[in-house]
Amino acid sequence: MSDQKIQNVLCHQKKHSNMSENTLDLKPSTDEIDLIDLLAIFFKNKVKIFFITIFFVIVSALICYKLPEKWTSKAIITYIDDNQLQPFELLSYKLKLFDISLNFDQKNLLSLFIQLFNSNILKEKYLVNTSYFQKLIKDHPENRNQFMLDIIKNIHIEYSKSNKENDFKGYVFYTLSYSADTAKDAQNLLNGYINYISAIFDEKLNNKITNKINIKKSVLSFIIDNKGMSINDDVNLPMAKLQLEKLQSIKLSDIKIIPFEYLQKPNEPVKKDSPQSAFIILLSGMAGLMVSMFYVLCFMF
Question: Of 11, 101, 137, 239, which one has the greatest count of Cβ atoms within 10 A?
Answer without folding.
Answer: 137
